[in-house]
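README, section 4: Worked example with a bound small molecule

Sections 1 through 3 covered apo chains. Here we extend the same pipeline to holo records, where the ligand is supplied as SMILES alongside the sequence. The molecule in this example is adenosine-5'-diphosphate. Nothing else about the input changes; the structure line simply encodes the ligand pose together with the chain.
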Amino acid sequence: MKFITIAGPPSCGKTAVLIHTIKRLLEDDTKVAVGKIDCLETDDGERYKDLGIPVIVGLSGDLCPDHYYVSNLEEILTWAKKNQAEMTILETAGLCHRCAPAIVGCLSVVVIDNLSGIDTPRKIGPVLTTADVVVITKGDIVSQAEREVFRQKIRLVNPEAEILEFNGLTGKGSVRLRKILLESPEVHTLVDETLRSSMPACICSYCTGETRIGNSYQLGNVLKIVS
Amino acid sequence: MNNLVTIKKITILGGYTKDGMEEPIRKMDITTGEILVLVGPTGSGKSMLLSDIELLASADTPSKRTVLINDTMYEGCRSEIIAQLSQTMNFVMDTTVGDFLILHASSRNIDSDAIVNDVIALANTLAGEPINPHDFITTLSGGQSRALMIADIALISDSPIVLVDEIENAGIDKLQALQVLSDKGKIVIVASHDPVIMLMAKRRVVMRNGGMNKVLSTNQKETELLHELISFDKNMFSLRESLRTSGTIEIA
Ligand SMILES: Nc1nc2c(ncn2[C@@H]2O[C@H](COP(=O)(O)OP(=O)(O)O)[C@@H](O)[C@H]2O)c(=O)[nH]1
Ligand SMILES: Nc1ncnc2c1ncn2[C@@H]1O[C@H](COP(=O)(O)OP(=O)(O)O)[C@@H](O)[C@H]1O
Ligand SMILES: [Mg+2]
Ligand SMILES: [Mg+2]
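The generated complex, written as structure tokens:
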């Protein structure tokens, strides 16, 4: 089984990139299963089901979607095995950029779009720096110069990754991405594998449902902007 | 000078039309310094062919074409050798023209001081209203943006292969624009509906139903006609400029 994570900010094109690439994988009869983690709501499950492949959707509700995602990795792998998948692709919620639920030993893809601003590569942290493959979308709507500068900014924070330009509307780039996915490592279990970077420390009163504002309600791990 | 390989030619090996028939043109060489125009009705496959070239396709796109550089499969990074320009592209970065060009030049390891003025001066030969280094790039007009993109591709990107998808309606001096782009021995491939651009190139590919249907060389008669069209076009351009800058037309 190949287990691949695909992360990136909301609306950067993760689902568009995956749909085009999965279509290519299906041409070779590769058995693909997709998991989608989100927080409150997502239509992505339906979009993947239209491809006629097994899909599992997890909504984290009141929990942090990235913590929820890590807590369910083994369950998703087991589900995919039951569905005879050869490749499991997991789309993350992509809500905050602090977490990078990339897994050591599994291919990690990050999607980032040309519209997100020139400083984004520097700002988004582990999700970009720990990725094996950086997919850049929406090059069809910005200038050649901006594409070049954006690519170079990505190169600066992640010198190792393969950078791939992709058009999420036409699927341009999907053949190359298919090849990369097909060459990704095999895993049998995720138990005892590790994350490539740690999640932020938290557990304060707001994590457990507190809604009131003020020092006296803030218990646990609390950091102040001015000390 | 910042290109790692010298590109001498592109070869397109024919694939299939939208109906899965072999496209009539089986092999097409385009050599350095040439401007090639793609013509054909909307939906005939011009953008698809440009996309195949951009991807340096190897029988792995819907058309199943193969694109070779200097007779071989290109192994390097294609974004370093191919620049693109289309009607849908806009500037999105929140910065001034001057700062933007400095940023782009430094990303290409080009000394930025001199080049900034060169790019702006070149852009200003293409568009009506002059561009200023202090203008924000996102506030430039359509024509100014296109002019700046062209000058920037010509001087800073300096990619040996330039792909242009239908920019004739952008309010720029299109002939001058093509001249600027094809300068310095680049290969320029342009999809166009504009007869002046079609006849300006020595050869044009006629697209039909997704396939390369014919390659035509511009003939004597067409070249003569081109001169008429160009002066017609120049009149249109100066008339437009004149009317735009409060000129009037009087009975002679
Ligand atoms: N112009 C353009 N739009 C794109 C591209 N890739 C994705 N989109 C659009 O961006 C929007 C968000 O895409 P989606 O795949 O849902 O993003 P996700 O939230 O990361 O999964 C959709 O409207 C896509 O059609 C691209 O390369 N170019
Ligand atoms: N050789 C081909 N095989 C399969 N589909 C094609 C081929 N050429 C073009 N198409 C498809 O036909 C449609 C129109 O082509 P396009 O290149 O956008 O035309 P144009 O730019 O001339 O208007 C697109 O969806 C494109 O993907
Ligand atoms: Mg999505
Ligand atoms: Mg087109």
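What to look for in the output: Chain A touches chain B at residues 114-115, 117-118, 140-149, 151-152, 165, 170, 172-173, 175 (CB under 8 Å). The domain at 2-197 of chain A is CATH 3.40.50.300 (Rossmann fold).

Section 5 describes how to batch many such records.
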